[in-house]
Amino acid sequence: MNDLTYAYAQPSTLTHAPEGAALQLAAYAENAPASETACFFQGRLRDSWLAARGLTTLAKVVASRFVPQNIALRDPIVTAGAGLLRFEAFSSCNGVYARLDLGPAALDGEFLSSGTTNVDFNEPMVNALSRVARAEPVRLTVGQTEVTLERAAGTVTERKVTLPERWLKGLTAVQGYLALMDEKTTLTRAQATQLVQSIPAGTARGDFFLVLRGARPSLAPVGSPGAVRVGGVHRLRLLDGLLPLCESLRVFATPDGQASAFVVALGGGQEFVLALSAAANRGFSGEGNQLDTLLEDLPAEWLAGANNLFRGNETFNPTLFAMAHDLAPGTVDRLCASLSAMGLLGFDLAENHYFYRRLPFKTDRILKLNPRLKNARALLDSADDVQLVGVGAQGRTEARVRGTDVWHTVLVGGPEPPRCTCQWFTSHQGQRGPCKHMLAAQLRFG
Amino acid sequence: MNTLVVEQFEQLIRQSTPADFIPFLLKLEKQDLPAAREKLKALKQELDTIVQLSANSWGTRATGDQHANLFLAGFAVYSRREALGGALSGAGSLGMSPNDRIAALKQHFITLVATLRPDWLHDWLLRQHDRASGWSIDYNLLRTLEATGLIPFSPLLTARSLPGLLADWGWNLSTTGSIPADAAAVIADAMGGDQLLLTRDLPLLFEYEGTIHHTWARIQPPMPLNQKGTGQGATYLRPWQAWDQLHPLQTVGWQALLLRLVANGHLDRADILTRCLLALRRDFRRPLLSWFRELFLALKPTFTERLARQAELTELLAHPLPLVVNFALDQLKDMHAEPGFNLAPLLLSAASLLTRPDLKTGLRSLVTGLARLPQRALAPAPTVAGLLTTALAHPDAAVQKLAAQGLAGLLSAPRPLLTSAEATAARAALAQQADYLSSAGRTILAPWLDAPAAAAPAACYTPLTAFVPDIAPATAIAPVTDWHELLFLTGQVLQHQDPAARERWLDGLLRLHGQLPADYAEQLRPYLVQVAARLKRSHGIKASDLLTESVSLHDHDGLFLALLLGWADGFATPRVARVDVGGSRAAPLLVVEQQRYLLVETRLQQAVTLSLLSTPTHQPHWVAPSALLARLLSHQAAGVAPAAADLALALARSAHAHPAEAAQARHLLPQLADAGLRTLLAWFFGPADQLLPALPPANERPPAQLATPVAKALPELWAVAARTKMPAASFPTLAASLGYDYAGVTQPLSCVGEAIPTPAQPAQGPAPRFAELLWRGGTALAAPSPLLLYASPVGQSQGITWENSWLVLYEFPYLAALLPNYPAPLYAHVLQLAAWTDNLESSERDLLLLGLHSLLGPGPVLETAATAVLASGLIHHTPAGRNLAQEVLLQTIAHGRLQPAGLGNILGHQLASGYAPASRLADTLRPLQAFDGLTDDALSLTLDALLPMLPATPPRNLRPLLDTYADLLARAQRPAPAALRPNLLAWQQAASLKPVAQPLLAQAA
């Protein structure tokens, strides 16, 4: 599975001039039309200092890694549309997702086109961002004019970056988790600062739980009713530069505690989202929380139609969308899962709606980026590899599915969650999505 | 493809020097490259792989020249993809200090790449920097590559490589000619002549995270191999010491060098000052930020220079690290009143600074400065009042006190600084912060605080008198009902350390015996594969061999695997008895557990499906008395004699204190045929205060063993029942019945940590780093009977090794599940292993964490050993230990399990012995106060007992603990106890303690 390699015509820069600074983010969009001008936004940052803090925190997330591995500096994805600029990124280990939203109140300029692109985050630019002073006027340009002309002329690229496919996989899992999350609590700035100071020193082992004791937030090593599970809590330190500046901090978590998110309201139309996976050693790319929903193929024309609709609308609420188009909630879930499996959808917790990313509409990515689903389909290629044993009460189906040198007993259907005797299920007990054996049994008998 | 060329290629790599090899590489034809590439990969695999060279030696087979040839050949034969993909390694030599061999290699490298001009060289160097943290290319080599147009100028590579230039200078000055007296001056002069370095490259050191803070030039001639030591006896100097005396080492760091360059005018002082401040804005690592701070301070900026950089300094106030913020506040503190100082950004930043609990020293100066501004009409009083009110919530008592003083000054100024409306708003804001105020702050601001309408009576903590387990349908453990549940439970038990799941699995095996599908063994095979994978590392075993070969199994995990393997082959081969449980020393109670597993195995072999007596019926591990009676009656009906080990554990797990359950058990009791057992259970489930009946004395009775029938093991069962029901009681008649006594049988377990006296130290010797405690088990011999579940652990802490801790670590959750009524012996074991001195290692830490974890939730009042485990956690050296202990403390208070006096005594004893610093306990307790009246009261009671235990000479850094105590007493609305008076009298002599000791003393009087 190859990563996508993309190139910038020139590096991103922040230049200072007497009339103010100019932040030009070089972009490379995978599906940029050759004939169009690849410039998404031009204008002024209303609170450049705060935006610079958000962008440097995003750069910190990108440069961070919480498991031993090589540094894999990647550049954020920026989506321009619906009056917002959304900068998204993952840590190198893929267990932390961060997004900086610059809303209409934060921007004073024009959106030349909607689109999604990678922006170059090089060290000099991060350095320059850290030097932006309070009240310093800064102009922001995302993308650059005539970039395609330069590409067509074969301009020497300044820097090549590999977009890891696991980012796309991570985006799928993250939006799946974010869409499930409930708001647990809201902290004031003082509480948020106390929270970051209560993070245990060093690398935290095991889970921690956010609890409010009186008005004081604490991170406790044991759970209690109402506590929010925060896996790999030391990763929250990524926010230590932003929390003293925030207006409030909203805390979200999935009902099963497998992911948590912290929405930092910075004021002035700026918001920073940090989502954490269940543990420091669990990247979002390996979660597989959307596999169940992806099982059933939707007609290609449905997907294409939904893609065109969302592409035009740029944001939508799934419940309202289902009601407006007289669709079953399950069908909308499958549509969303399929589109997000191509990296096309993100989820905005604050507004409780999906937003659209203009990435290539490649349905082959659904299988390519979900090897468990692909392997399950491969099991179905042979008639003997998935065998029905019987159907029990309430439709509980027992199957035998071929594994490596053994046959696995698989139970699917009915009110109980599916089960399997394979190593994956035994280790994770269903917390990281279904195994390929369950998927194969569900595809054949489900 | 020319075969001869490839052969020659190989031969040259193996046998030639790099100098001889280069001409060949330069003449390689394009059509020969694919074959040469493959040959190079094969040779690299052969020569560069680490192998065992001799019995005790590992390394690569390649010689120095072969390494160099392999590396150089890569530039000639690899494509971009291969080079960037990792095939071309060995860049280390391009970054090392120059010795002759390395210098020659670099020259060959330049010759080669200058001719071949690989277009991927720059990308390859960047990739090498990313992959090898800490490695950087030689700066001079980088400049050469850049000058010859082989790579473009790269700020990143330059910033990474430049620090190493200083190390190269050290090498050059040490090895060429005479050593200069002032090496720093020589280096500075040389660098001063390099304009590109000064104007383009040096500024990059302030923009990229690098190694500038720990790179030095070390100038000293290399010591000859035949250097001898000098002197004799006490004056003997080792060779290197003698060499140091002859040729003193000069060390030149970047800071000294930059100061020289600034002093010589090669660098602009103003520019460097500004760059330091800009570098401090970055998220660099702490040591590097400290270095930039030190450089700024070393330049000794004047007041005017600092004032000119007020904007840069104010920007630093948003930095997440206290070291940067404190530095900025320190630089700004004398500027507030200056006419040229712009206060607005400072006031803006102060709003977010004053809530940061990690800032203390800097905030004190900031608050002091802020409080003076309105009097000088430099800042609007309402703004300052708002900031000072914000600071009142700060956890640091000094910050809070200064803010309170400042606010009081504003509100009581002779010439009003606030309008009436502003003053009202300030008082309203103050009222919102009232809950956070310490006693000192409250006293200062008393005139502006509303008096409490009616002082609410402070909550009063009292420990639980009797604990009744929750035996209800909601806590009932559902037995395994069908084959599929049992199958998937097997996987759960296999991979997860869960005592409750394992108990359900054991019970399920017995219950469902005979109801399994015909192919059940085949369905278990995936789990056998997982077992084989787990055992593979030590045994190299295959899944297919598991059932046919003798597999070595150990400890609790081994007991489970033995049953699983037996189940898979229909229990044709008994396996449980062969499991090595390591003796009672390694893990107490494991032999009793083995007996239970043996019982299950035997029953399954004999197709007897009776449940074990000791299988828990209610969460977490309780056996309901009525269920125990029902099981005994089932055994009786089936004609199966109960096993003594199983019955002893059932008694230990019994919820005997549950009145309804005990009554139901008593109701069933007459149906039990065994009169001896009936008598025992009648007492056990009888009234809580019923004395132990007179037991028949034994004559020459041997202690009961695991397989002893219940009738002969009754005295041991009485011992278990008595201690389960009355943990703190004495049972003097038991010894006569047993025919022997043992620590923890007739008398309750004694668990006291005695401080080991520090041996007299030689005058010149170092002071001992850590105090040690001796937890005595009270006995040096193993218990006479394994059925004595509450027997004291053998030995003492100093005789125990880390292997013991490691063994118990895995077993502890299972063992703690066996003794829910009275786990004291296990806690005594934990104390012996993991709490005998501070700063023990990770296995001891993890064991203590397990001990602490088992104290969470409802349960009986903590006895001495459990309290000592909690105390050890509260002063543990790791944050993980203290965090968990905080939760345990809160939960034990909430559930009424804490005995504050007991905890205070143990902590007082430990702090007095110097086991841990008093400030550590203060840091642990401080976050727990002021959110719950009950907790405040329990904590104050704990400190009531603790503080009198401390010596009259106050332990170091006692002030934070006394501050916490004073706050707690204020909240609990009561004075310090009289027992503390002598210590308070002594402590008030110390200047640091006087401000807090005196008011406490006054209250105590």
Please identify the top-level CATH class of the domain at 4-163 in chain A.
Alpha Beta
Weakly predicted, low-confidence segments of chain B = none
How many DSSP helices of chain B? 48
Strand order, main sheet of chain B: write it out: 1-2
Structural class of chain B: mainly alpha
How much of the residues of chain B is beta strand, in percent? under 5%
Could you tell me the number of beta strands of chain B? 6
Instruction: Please compute the radius of gyration of chain A using only Cα atoms.
Output: 23 Å
Kindly provide the radius of gyration of chain B, computed on alpha-carbon positions and rounded to a whole number of angstroms: 38 Å
The helix content of chain B is 40-55%
CATH topology of the domain at 4-163 in chain A: DNA Polymerase III, Chain A, domain 2
What is shown here, in short?
The complex is a heterodimer of chains A (446) and B (1005). Among the domains of chain A are: 160 residues, Roll (DNA Polymerase III, Chain A, domain 2), CATH 3.10.150.10; 75 residues, no CATH class. In chain A, 28% of the residues lie in helices and 31% in strands.
Structure explained in plain terms:
- The complex is a heterodimer of chains A (446) and B (1005).
- Chain A is of the alpha+beta class.
- Among the domains of chain A are: 4-163, Roll (DNA Polymerase III, Chain A, domain 2), CATH 3.10.150.10; 371-445, no CATH class.
- Chain A has helices at residues 48-63, 123-130, 147-152, 165-180, 189-197, 291-294, 300-313, 318-324, 329-340, 364-368, 371-381, 423-428, 436-445, and strands spanning 4-8, 13-17, 20-25, 27-28, 39-45, 77-81, 84-90, 96-102, 107-111, 115-119, 138-143, 159-163, 182-188, 208-213, 216-220, 228-230, 248-253, 260-267, 270-276, 315-316, 345-348, 353-356, 386-391, 397-402, 407-412, 419-420.
- Chain A has a nine-stranded antiparallel β-sheet, with helices on both faces.
- In chain A, helix 8 crosses helix 9 (329-340) and helix 11 (371-381) packs across helix 13 (436-445).
- The longest helix of chain A has 16 residues, at 48-63.
- Chain A starts with a strand and ends with a helix.
- Helices cover 54% and strands 2% of the residues of chain B.
- In chain B, the strands form three sheets. In chain B, strands 1-2 form a two-stranded antiparallel ribbon. In chain B, strands 3-4 form a two-stranded antiparallel sheet. In chain B, strands 5-6 form a two-stranded antiparallel sheet.
- In chain B, 45% of the residues are buried.
- The mean pLDDT of chain B is 89.
